[in-house]
Amino acid sequence: MPPKTRHVPVVIVGGGQAGLSVSYHLKQRGIEHLVFEKQTAAHTWESQRWDTFCLVTPNWQCDLPGHPYDGPDPDGFMKRDEIVAYLKAFVAKVNPPIREGVAVTRVERRQDGIFSVQTSEGDFTADEVVVASGGYHTPIIPRMAEKLPGSITQIHSNQYRNPDQLPEGEVLVVGSGQSGAQIAEDLHLAGRTVHLAVGDAPRCARFYRGRDVVTWLADMGYYEMTVDNHPLRDGVRDNTNHYVTGRDGGRDIDLRRFAAEGMKLYGLMEDYRDGSLRFRDDLKRSLDQADRTYNGINAAIDKYIAEKGIDAPVQEHYTPVWEPGEPVTSLPLEGSGITSVVWCIGFTPDFRWLDASVFNGAGSPKHKRGVTNEDGIYFIGLPWLNTWGSGRFGAVGRDAEHIVQVIQKRLGAERFALKFAV
C-alpha cells in the first residue's frame, strides 16, 4: 500500500529568515506546521555571498523576531561570517520543524479545498501555504553571453567569491546595482583593471551631516512608510536598490572616483557582435541621475534637520569628481585585456511549482502585505511586501506576524465551522 499522506495545518516553503520568522510566530501560537527547505536553513548567506560581503545597513536594523542584534557594534556592518553566525543563532532559537534537503515540486488546491503539496520526500496536504522562497531564484545571464568566445570566463554575481578565482587579466563587470558596484569595488581594491557597464541604479551617501543616512531616514519615518503610501505605490517594488557599502566601517561608492583611479566606465551593455562589446550612449545620463538621487536624499535630510531645529554639522552636497569624455559604444574584445565577465544584472523569480491564480502578467505575486486573494496562500520576504524592510532583517518579522495572525483567524474559523457542522 502507498504511504499515507501526512496532513499539516501550515506548510512553509523556504527556510531563510522569512520562513523562519513565520515559523517563530506559528510556534508562539502553538500552530502545527512544517518548513521545507531544499538546501539548508538560511544557506543563501553562506553559499551565495563573496568573501568581503557585508551588510549595507547598520547592525541595529537587524531585528528578527525574538532575536534583535545584541552585539558590540550596533552602528557597524556585519561581515558575511558574522551574518551567518547571527542567522544560525536565530535558527537555534526558533528550533523550527524543518525538513532540510527537501524540495517542494508542486502545490495545488484539491477539489475539497485542501492543498496538495508534492515534495522530493513525498506527498503532504495542508490548509495554508506560505511561500517564503524569496524572489531571487534564477540568475539572469543574457543571450549575448552565448556569443562570447569560450576563452572568456563568465560567472554570475552569485558565484563570485574573490578576485583570485578569476583568471589573470582585466574584468568586465556588467551591472551597477548593489552587487555589481560592490564587486567592482572589490576587484578594483585588489588591483584588478575593471571595466564596468553601468546601469540605472541610484546611489546614496553612507554618512551625511554627522550620522549614517539610514539613521536619518529611520528618524524621518521612511522605513515605516508602506507601499500603499509610497509615491510610486506598487511600482516601488521594481526599483533597483541604491548602491553604497558597509565595508571598512562604511563609505560611499562613487563610480566617478573609481574612474578617476583607472576603472573604465561604459553605458548599459547591449550586445556582443562582430567581435566587439556594444554599449549604450547613456553613461553620463546614468551617473548624473545617480547623483541627483544622492543629492536629493541629502536635501530631504537637510529639510528635516531645519524643520526640527537639529544641531548637525553642515555638509556640502556632492560635486562630481570626474566626467566622462567621448562615449565608448563599441569595444573590440580582442586587445581589450578582458579575460572574464561577472554578470551582475539580477535574478528572476520562479514560482512554477505553485499552481494558483495569484500572479500578474509579469509572473509576480499579487498580494496585500503578503496575503493573496486566494484563501490560504501567502508570500513573505519579498522586496516592499509592505515596507522597505520587508525583504530584509528589519521588518520581515513584523510581516510574518501579520500573516500568522491571518492564518490563525482562518484556521480558527475553519475549525469552528467544522465543529458546528458536526
Automatic annotation (TrEMBL):
Recorded hits in InterPro entries, A to Z, give: Auxin_biosynth/cation_transpt, CHP04046_FMN-dependent, FAD/NAD-bd_sf
- Gene3D superfamilies in the cross-refs: FAD/NAD(P)-binding domain
One Pfam family it belongs to? Pyr_redox_3
GO molecular function annotation: flavin adenine dinucleotide binding; monooxygenase activity
Looking up SUPFAM superfamilies in the UniProt record yields: FAD/NAD(P)-binding domain
Q: Which UniProt keywords apply?
A: Oxidoreductase, Plasmid
Taxonomic superkingdom:
Bacteria
Mind telling me which NCBIfam families this protein's record contains? MSMEG_0569_nitr
Q: Which PANTHER family match?
A: FLAVIN-BINDING MONOOXYGENASE-LIKE PROTEIN (AFU_ORTHOLOGUE AFUA_4G09220), FLAVIN-CONTAINING MONOOXYGENASE
In Swiss-Prot or TrEMBL terms, this protein is called FAD-dependent oxidoreductase
Q: Which organism is it from?
A: Methylorubrum extorquens (strain ATCC 14718 / DSM 1338 / JCM 2805 / NCIMB 9133 / AM1)
- Organism placement in taxonomy: Bacteria, Pseudomonadati, Pseudomonadota, Alphaproteobacteria, Hyphomicrobiales
